[in-house]
Amino acid sequence: MTEVFLNGKFTGEVEDAASFVNSIKEERRAGSINDAVNVYYDEKSDDVFIESSKGRARRPLIIVRDGQPLLTEKHLKQLERNEISWSDLIKQGIVEYLDAAEEENTLVAFFDNELTQEHTHLEITPMAMFGFATSLVPYGNFNQSTRLNAGSKNQKQALGLYAANYSVRMDMDVNTLHYPHVPIVKTIMHDIGDYDKHPAGQNIVVAVMSYKGYNMEDAIIINKASIERGFGRSTYFRPSVAEELRYSGGLIDQISIPDKDVKGYKSERDYRFLEDDGIIFPEAKVEEGDVIIGKTSPPRFLSSLEEYNLTAGTRRESSVSLKHGERGVVDFVLLTENEEGNKLVQSRLRDQRIPEIGDKFTSRHGQKGVVGLIVPQTDMPFSESGITPDLIFSPHGIPSRMTISHLIEILAGKTGALSGRFINGTTFDAEPEEKLREELKGLGFRENGVESFYNGITGERFHAQIFVGNMYYLKLKHLVANKMHSRARGPIQLLTRQPTEGRAKEGGLRLGEMEKDTFVAHGASLLLKERFDSDKTTVPVCESCGIIAIKDDYKNRSYCPICGDNVEINDVELSYAFKLILDEFKSMGVYPKMQLENKY
Question: pLDDT tens, 458-513?
Fold first, then answer.
């Protein structure tokens, strides 16, 4: 007898497991049993598992009987004429959903010409194993799986036209590419998904070669003339928001130019862009520190007397100004109100981002890299026909990563550009490389995609033949202008007196325990000493009890809270964070005694 489990619980036994499993499948296909039920027969353990629980990943397959798919030409024509829909195919038992367990008992064919008597199912399309972004990668079946995954992730970070109505939207941190293209090498998914309505990349000429070593370690080299013609240009948008909040006692924020008697008044220069209503005007060029929306708030803490005499409490400054490192042009100002009926002002900044050294670019095959050098066109290598590449890609990125589709796309893009047509690069169903080679040969080029190149500086011909062609490149949202950050001195935290954290807060770069070890290994002791001086402080310490003493600047005397006046008290330099942990020990009832030694 074979044991049967329903959703992991033992429910009974059957004599003939194979016919039992087949009968469940037939009943499901006939519609007698819910189509969410899946059944799996484990021959080794002689158990039958039936699953109907939620949360299983299931995928559709065409059912095959006697080597023939149940989906016929008649069905396809009915689908084209919209006479039947997808759900009808499932009801008629032509397509069924399988989970991971039931798939173990199947033999699935990729294409109908591969079908044999043993096959039980046929793939709708081999591309169904991919998500939307992955199916946009051309010639994906020539790629290593991890790179295909990376290529799909990179496309999600690419700059393009994210929404056609971006000019009237207030989205946080968005970029739009100025001149996006539709790729020359497409997949079927580009047409199905209307990719031409929201493109996110540009077709450029790519040469695979080294150039003065500036494109090693995945870096890329860009032609300066290409940037001047608009390659990779984008605009960065960022909104600022201010609202008139209401407080208890009828107090309210006020959007206006702050008066000079307001607590925390900046300077007249900071408010120079504000109009009479306290809001900046469009097309104003602003830098960090400039006020965009002027606002004053009531004082934070009202004493019992001031509550009745509101005129006594001066208002405080709470304007919205540009943070450290921000700059741009005011693009759009929106005045509206929120759900509570409070006045809401939004002002959007725009900043043109021209490709610079450190910006990140990638192909659709996970071959990402940052710009290592921008070369004037006069110094770029050029082909015999006078073509200078827009981008130079390092050949070392190919062997270890095995992204053959990267190379095939260059060849296909070259063919498509020369013959003036789009190339179908759908995974498992693309135009074969052999045909592309023949077409390229017919166009008067070498079939393997290489050309003779000349050194742009000396004019000498390179000994090696250079692989060159057209390719779809993406600019990613990781721009160096958004990440570049340095600091000498600046704001510190209230609690630890150490530098603040993060670029927006003008913070420092933390030197941690491991970084400390590298300096120790180098013997760079003075640099190490300087690094650990960020919260240096001087505290008086009692000689007898080893506890931090009290310095009374008003009476110009030092005394110990335990021993009193008549003890030796010495000033000691230490890190404020160390003094803080001593205080925390004291609060727990632990006695942190410091034993001082003579430093001579």
Answer: 999 999 999 999 999 999 999 999 999 888 889 999 999 999 998 888 888 888 89
The number of distinct structural domains making up the chain is: 5
Pair 226, 266 in one domain: no
Find the largest Cα–Cα distance for the chain: 106
Whose tokens are 């335990």? That residue is 562
Q: Within 13 Å of residue 328, how many CA atoms lie on the same side as its CB? A: 27
Domain at 109, CATH number: 3.90.1070.20
pLDDT digits (tens, 9 = 90+) for 407-419: 999 999 999 999 9
Count helices and strands (H / E) in the chain: 12, 34
Whether 600 maps to a domain, the answer reads no
Pairing of strands 316-317, 328-337: unpaired
Cross-strand pairs, 62: 95, 122
HSE on the CB side for 598, CA within 13 Å?
A: 1
What distances in angstroms separate CA 217 from CA 84, 220, 464, one per listed residue? 54, 9, 21
Q: From the CA atom positions of the chain, what is the Rg in Å? A: 35
Q: Report the predicted TM-score, pTM, of the whole model to 2 decimal places.
A: 0.85
Q: Is 218 a catalytic residue?
A: yes
- pLDDT, one tens digit per residue, over 157-215 is 999 999 999 999 999 999 999 999 999 999 999 999 999 999 999 999 999 999 999 99
Give alpha helix (H) positions in 296-422: 404-419
**Domain limits for position 73:** 2-124
Which residue type sits at 518?
A: T
DSSP strands (E only) in 195-264: 202-208, 220-223, 234-243, 254-255
Residue of 218, 270, 379, 429 marked catalytic: 218
Give the angle subtended at the CA of 97 by the CAs of 95 and 98, to the nearest 5°.
125
Bridge-based pairing of strands 220-223 and 285-286 is unpaired
pLDDT in tens, 68-100: 999 999 999 999 999 999 999 999 999 999 999
User: Given the DSSP bridges, would you call strands 234-243 and 174-177 parallel, antiparallel or unpaired?
Assistant: antiparallel
Strand segments, DSSP code E, in 268-390 are 285-286, 291-293, 295-297, 316-317, 320-321, 328-337, 343-353, 360-362, 368-375, 382-383
Residue type, 212: K
Last residue of one domain, picked from the residues 124, 157, 190: 124
Residues 69 and 93 in one domain: yes
Question: What is the torsional sign of CA 447, 448, 449, 455?
Answer: negative
**Chosen domain end from 302, 319, 353:** 353
Res 382: pLDDT = 97
CA–CA separation, 33 and 23 (whole Å): 11
